[in-house]
Amino acid sequence: MSRIRGKDTKPELIVRSMLHRAGYRFTVNGPLNRSLPGKPDIVLPKYRTVIFVHGCFWHGHEYCQYFRIPKTRTEWWREKISTNKMRDRKNESTLLKEGWNVFTVWECTLKREDGREWLMRKLNRFLIGLT
Question: pTM higher than 0.85 for the full model?
């Protein structure tokens, strides 16, 4: 697990590229990114919005083809993923209480071009609704 990257993953780079092409400006390593609960992957200060890019396996994306509990050490993995999900919910709740808008992107959405197009439309509607 020590080789699993936490930053600049392929899904993150795809989302950042999509946002940049659409003209949105954001921070990735700014002070807000480090100080906010959950250390969001992307922060759009103008919209007071944070974006989390979740891997389907690590964050337990239910009913997703990319999420399966491994057959070895099953209980340990269940607990690990359950803890991740609880932490995600707590961070989102804290951010919402602090007045931030939270948007979560799942890795599986980014696998296909039609999923990326759908996500960009949804994200545009979300951000335009904030202004």
Answer: yes
